[in-house]
Design brief:
- The complex is a heterodimer.
- Chain A is an alpha+beta fold.
- Chain A has two domains: about 240 residues, Immunoglobulin-like; about 40 residues.
- Chain A has nine helices and 13 strands.
- In chain A, β12 and β13 form a beta hairpin.
- The N and C termini of chain A lie far apart (about 55 Å).
- In chain B, about 50% of the residues are buried.
- By secondary structure, chain B is mainly alpha-helical.
- Chain B has one domain.
- Chain B has a two-stranded antiparallel sheet with strand order 1-2. Chain B has a two-stranded antiparallel ribbon with strand order 3-4.
- Classes of the chains: A alpha+beta, B mainly alpha.
- At the A-B interface, β6, β7, α7, α8 and α9 of A face β1, α3, α5, α8 and α9 of B.
- β6 of chain A pairs antiparallel with β5 of chain B, so a sheet runs across the interface.
Chain lengths: ~290, ~300
């Protein structure tokens, strides 16, 4: 998909800086997108659910792969697209757009500290069944305006709903506190975010937003959803994935440490000894020579 | 320059790591200690996961001790036989340590264990060192450098069976105390991510009665194999050795150590020891305070494993 924009990063900043001027570019891309929509669906694993209202999402991403290199310092993904429709724009509530990107989910062990004999010790623990490693929701208006609670329950869009916690043992009464802790801690680390009013929608047809991802990403397929809503009800849904992967040396070391831990350990020792010895030998030569 | 650490899975500034390595290197050069006991807590403070910090630090200690032990081999100040006996104990200790570490990790108590170990050992060693060097400083001032009468300890250590002759140290003692010392240091190496020199050196002098000139070389020799073994255990059971992190710390550390050695020659031994003792106590105090004060976040997240 990157072929449309040769330099995504530069394009992104330009886009944000001259939002208005970029609109014409956006239109051009949209035309191209609509023309190649059948092609697109065949190429990617994405899928679009057309609704009874006859509106459908056509999407572009500035990149559908994030490569974690040695100097990886976070990434910004530009999500843009258009609404394809056969009929004129419905006369009801205005169109709102939600973009949700979710990292791979995994169970999380949440522990709570308590003061015992003067020191703070982990005591109660609750296993939260599934929580995404990263979760960002961008909306075109305040969250409560773009999605009703019932629809949120059905589509699991809000951060709280993206975390699944079946329940704790009988001895813990405030299990919700533990799920809230996941939300709070990850939000503080910049991993979870709700970005209201950050999706720009033009003429109920074109939309765009930029989502920045922190440096501390985990690998995996990042599920990217676009929901179109009217009056809080979802009218169309589109889904695709962004692959986040370590590449090059990072990938080599990571895979080796998991698949050949013995050789990885030996290699680490050898490299470290060579580096330490080399550095001190070089320093000695420098001082004597 | 930000660098993404492949195993720790965090992005940190490469110069910060080089700087930390350099700073701890200067201190270790000045005081002749490994510096693991300072580096591991510092790595906690900059956000490296404790398990990765401990395992990587073990790897780094192997490398930083390596060039040191070569110098001691050249000067023939390594008691190889004693080193091997200590190592035998050290390997057993390291294995026990990693088992305990992994067990407590599954219970979610590993951070507490590591920090408690630090508080206790740093407190005891720092306190003793402070008192002892303060006394030495006062004595040398008053008497103008009176030679302290040297006493050879002849206690319970010499009553144990399984005696062995250690030529380099000029000792004929039972192998049980060295093995016990080895086990203790091995456990500490695995749990705290330290070489254990700060325990080993006093133990060799006061419990085993080894001559001071072979103590440092022998303890370095012993530390290398034990920490190498610890590194392998962590690498194969926890996958927490981060080679990129280790190399960055190491390069800074080696350069820092050379600078530190030069600074060290300008200061008196007693003054150096007091400084070191104060630093050890400061780290101990900070870690202890963290355990006692109400944390700002009561909850912690961990990886759920084995479910």
């Amino acid at each position: 998909m990157g072929q449309w924009i040769s330099n995504p990063r530069r394009a992104t900043t330009q886009w944000l800086r001259h939002g208005r001027a970029a609109l014409s570019l956006c239109v051009a891309i949209t035309v191209f997108l609509i023309a190649s929509v059948t092609n697109l669906a065949a190429q990617t694993t994405s899928n679009s659910t057309p609704s009874s209202s006859g509106e459908e999402v056509v999407l572009g991403l500035s990149k559908d792969k994030v490569a974690i290199t040695a100097t990886f310092d976070g990434s910004e993904i530009l999500v843009f697209g258009a609404v394809k429709r056969e009929q004129p724009i419905p006369d009801t509530d205005p169109l709102e757009v939600i973009v949700a990107i979710s990292g791979p989910s995994a169970p999380v062990m949440v522990r709570r500290k308590e003061q015992k004999l003067g020191i703070w010790v982990n005591t109660d623990s609750v296993l939260v069944d599934s929580a995404p490693s990263f979760y960002a929701v961008a909306t075109s208006a305040p969250f409560s305006d773009v999605l009703t609670d019932t629809e949120d329950l059905r589509y699991r869009v809000s951060i709280g709903r993206a975390i699944r916690s079946v329940g704790a043992g009988m001895h813990i009464r405030d299990a919700q506190e533990f799920a809230n802790a996941v939300k709070r801690i990850r939000a503080n680390e910049g991993l979870y975010s709700l970005r209201e009013n950050t999706v720009a929608v033009d003429e109920q047809t074109l939309f765009r937003t930029a989502i920045d991802m922190p440096a501390d990403l985990t690998e995996g397929a990042y599920r990217t959803r676009i929901l179109l809503t009217r009056g809080g009800e979802v009218v169309a849904q589109y889904e695709t994935t962004i692959d986040v992967q370590k590449v090059g040396l990072e990938r080599f070391l990571y895979v080796m440490s998991r698949e050949q831990p013995f050789w990885y350990g030996l290699m680490s020792l050898a490299i470290a000894i060579a580096a330490g010895w080399g550095a001190s030998a070089a320093f000695r030569m420098l001082r004597n020579g | 320059m930000q660098i993404y650490l492949p195993i720790a899975e965090v992005s940190v500034n490469a110069f910060l790591l080089l700087g930390l390595g350099g700073m701890v290197g200067i201190l270790s050069g000045m005081f002749g200690v490994g510096g693991g006991f300072l580096m591991t807590p510092l790595l906690f403070f900059i956000g490296i996961p404790p398990a990765v910090a401990v395992a990587t630090e073990a790897n780094q200690i192997v490398a930083s001790s390596f060039s040191g032990v070569l110098a001691h081999f050249r000067r023939r100040t390594v008691d190889i036989k004693m080193g091997l006996v200590l190592q035998a104990g050290g390997l057993i200790g390291a294995a026990i340590g990693v088992l305990v570490f992994n067990y407590l990790k599954s219970l979610g108590q590993v951070d507490l264990l590591v920090k408690l170990c630090y508080v206790v050992f740093l407190g005891v060693v720092g306190g003793l060192m402070f008192i002892e060097s303060l006394n030495a400083l006062r004595k040398s001032r008053r008497a103008g450098g009176n030679p302290v009468p040297k006493r050879r300890q002849r206690g319970w250590v010499h009553a144990l069976p399984l005696k062995m002759r250690f030529r380099t140290s000029g000792l004929y003692i039972s192998v049980i105390p060295p093995i016990m010392v080895g086990i203790l240091v091995g456990i500490l190496a695995a749990i705290m991510g330290v070489g254990g020199g700060f325990i080993m050196v006093p133990a060799m002098i006061y419990i085993l009665g080894m001559p001071t000139k072979v103590v440092v070389g022998t303890s370095l020799f012993q530390i290398i194999l034990v920490t190498a073994f610890t590194t392998m255990l962590h690498a194969t059971t926890n996958y927490t050795v981060d080679i990129v992190l280790a190399v960055l710390l190491l390069v800074g550390g080696v350069i820092g150590a050379q600078i530190g050695t030069r600074i060290g020659t300008y200061l008196k031994a007693e003054q150096l020891r007091i400084l070191l003792a104060l630093m050890v106590l400061a780290v101990c105090f900070k870690l202890g305070l963290d355990l006692l004060l109400t944390p700002s976040e009561l909850f912690t997240l961990g990886v759920a494993e084995g479910h």
